[in-house]
Write a structure and sequence with these properties.
By secondary structure, this protein is mostly helical. The protein is built from 20 helices and two strands. The longest helix is centred in the N-terminal third of the chain and has 35 residues. The protein has two domains: 274 residues, no CATH class; 229 residues, no CATH class. Keywords: Membrane, Transmembrane, Transmembrane helix.
Length: 536
């Protein structure tokens, strides 16, 4: 009776959480715009994928002839398991109104509700596109029962991976709570790991394009015959059916058996996480003690009020690196260039390319680290900041100085450091000087864009609340800064190669300087006026 009651309560909690998520997607114009962009992007992909799936259904004769069936059979469970684990660790470890909910129902019901809501979200984002492709394939194959059999195969897999992923994620949260040192190391290592994986993927793609590695060989290594046999159960009752293998039945039984086991493990870990004693009090005391002893700004930050404000931003970012989560955009933008660097062969050209990449990355970081959402970042203490005697220009100077403290060492130091790798000294000095000039311009542009479209909604990421800048602001800043910096790098490189710049090159540089400096100054002045508008 208790299990039946928990299932009923869990179903209601799951429905409420899922509805709340859907309302969150559509609660304002900004989220609707982002949702529309995502639908248009993936919908555009389906425009080409659906006719291809229909043509494939008309031409295929055996299940073995379906392309990419083996790697898909492996990537589906692994991908859903990893996604469920990461989402649990990111934001699903606790329930909405946790204190009230846990005094009303059993923890088992809360776990069931959160898992059901996550299954609904995964079905919404991944199930609908997969269902569209399956329907198109079934129409070409002439098998109207295929969508039903695919659903019968897909749902046990999704339920098992969602439950087990939640169990792994909630267990990971317990481990990180009890081991704060490991948590801090993982925060730093996660970014390095993502960058490394993305660079390796670019190197692998470069090797595939050049023919050094065979795609067929890579796909064969990803295949797991047992999972492929299970996926072929979806073709039962269709012209592609080749019989039911014992291995496929064993996988189905294993998925059905692992789901309640994973649910029991998730409940146990969640109960220990929500109700168990831990060292959060001592950790908070240690943090407070560290704050009293380590906030004093060093030179040169201590010389000016703006410098002390900049040191405060830097110190807070070190303690809560989740504030830099939006910088992962840079990984995807700079990944192809880094992949080309690693996979290239000409040492001198590679060193020069690395110097230019360092300048571009440093200029980007000068504005993107602290400038893309200044009002939103200061939301918790914004009333206090705007009531003190410190003028808005000092607040903005402190924020831009913090960004320059991060970006300038990269923009200037990395080009100079590549001299040892073969970069000509004149090129290294030219790129370093360019970074020294463009970094303040990027910082001024960033604060204006961030003040034009502030984001105040905080979300919990890896145990700390953070306010990420708007995706539109981030994309706009990335396109303008990286595009403009690339143009400047080409112009400076051409000028250094020519020796004596031509009048045309000088004229182009003057026009580009106006296009760089004027928007930056105007953007900074706009941000200062926005701050002043709150104090009038």
């Amino acid at each position: 009776m208790s299990h039946r009651r928990d299932l009923r309560h869990g179903r209601r909690i799951g429905r409420a959480e899922f509805v709340r998520s859907v309302r969150g997607y559509t609660r304002d114009a900004r989220r609707l715009l982002g949702l529309a962009v995502a639908v248009l992007f993936f919908g555009g992909q389906l425009v080409f994928a659906l006719p291809a799936a229909y043509a494939l259904g008309r031409s295929v004769r055996t299940a073995a002839a379906v392309p990419y069936l083996d790697p898909v059979a492996t990537l589906l469970p692994v991908g859903f398991l990893a996604l469920s684990t990461l989402r649990t660790m990111e934001r699903l470890g606790g329930a909405e109104a946790e204190d009230l909910l846990l005094t009303t129902v059993q923890p088992r019901a809360v776990v069931i509700g959160l898992v059901v809501a996550e299954i609904g979200r995964l079905t919404l984002w991944f199930g609908l596109p997969i269902a569209a492709l399956v329907v198109a394939f079934a129409a070409g194959l002439g098998a109207p029962t295929l969508p039903l059999t695919v659903g019968a195969v897909f749902l046990p897999l999704l339920a098992c991976t969602a439950v087990c992923g939640y169990a792994l994620g909630i267990t990971g949260l317990r481990v990180l709570r009890r081991m704060p040192t490991l948590r801090r190391l993982l925060k730093a290592g996660a970014v390095v790991g993502v960058v490394g994986l993305f660079v390796l993927s670019q190197v692998a793609a470069h090797s595939v394009v050049e023919g050094d590695v065979s795609v067929a060989t890579l796909l064969d290594r990803l295949s797991v015959p047992v999972l492929t046999d299970y996926l072929t159960l979806a073709f039962v009752g269709t012209p592609l059916a080749g019989g039911v293998s014992p291995a496929a039945v064993a996988v189905l039984v294993g998925l059905l058996a692992a789901t309640p086991v994973g649910l029991a493990a998730a409940e146990r870990s969640a109960r220990a996480l929500w109700f168990g004693d831990d060292d959060r009090g001592s950790a908070a005391s240690a943090t407070a003690a560290g704050t009293r002893g380590g906030f004093a700004p060093p030179r040169p930050f201590a010389w000016r009020p703006a410098g002390r404000i900049a040191w405060g931003h830097l110190l807070r970012a070190v303690r809560h690196p989740q504030e830099f989560s939006h910088l992962l955009m840079l990984v995807f933008l700079a990944g192809p260039a880094l992949g080309s660097l690693v996979s290239g062969h000409d040492g001198g050209a590679l060193a020069s390319l690395l110097a230019g990449t360092g300048t571009a990355v440093g200029v980007y970081l000068a504005g993107a680290t602290f400038g893309l959402n200044p009002l939103g970042d200061d939301r918790p203490q914004l009333p206090l900041l705007l009531l003190v005697e410190t003028p808005p220009r000092t607040l903005l100077r402190g924020r831009t100085a913090a960004g320059l403290a991060v970006g300038l060492p990269v923009a200037v130091g990395l080009p100079l450091g590549t001299v040892a790798l073969g970069t000509p000294p004149t090129v290294a000095l030219g790129y370093a000087a360019l970074g020294l000039i463009l970094a303040p311009a990027a910082a001024g542009l960033a604060v204006g864009l961030g003040c034009a479209y502030p984001i105040y909604e905080a979300r919990e990421l890896w145990g700390a609340e953070t306010v990420a800048p708007s995706t539109l602001v981030l994309l706009g800043y990335s396109l303008v800064v990286l595009g403009g910096t690339s143009t400047w790098l080409v112009l400076v490189g051409a000028g250094l190669a020519a020796g004596v710049p031509s009048p045309l090159l000088l004229g182009g540089g003057g026009v580009l300087a106006l296009l760089t400096g004027v928007p930056s100054v105007l953007s900074y002045r706009y941000a200062r006026n926005r701050y002043r508008g709150y104090t009038l």
